[in-house]
Amino acid sequence: MKKRRQDVLYDEMIKLIENSDQEKFKELLLAYTLVMMLHDDAGVVDTMVDI
Questions:
Q1: Is the pTM of this model over 0.85?
Q2: Which of 15, 22, 26, 27 is most exposed, with the fewest beta carbons within 10 Å of its own?
Q3: pLDDT digits 0-9 by tens, 1-45
Q4: Total number of domains in the chain
């Protein structure tokens, strides 16, 4: 099954919110933000990752 990279990160962030892991959440939020910024800047097609 393939999902967009930002969707995978988003799903992970939701799990962390539910588990209240603040430190890990901040790291993932930064990763998510960077992926979205790079995605927007490059104007590329969604990067797909295996999950």
A1: no
A2: 22
A3: 677 777 888 888 788 778 777 788 788 888 888 877 776 555 555
A4: 1
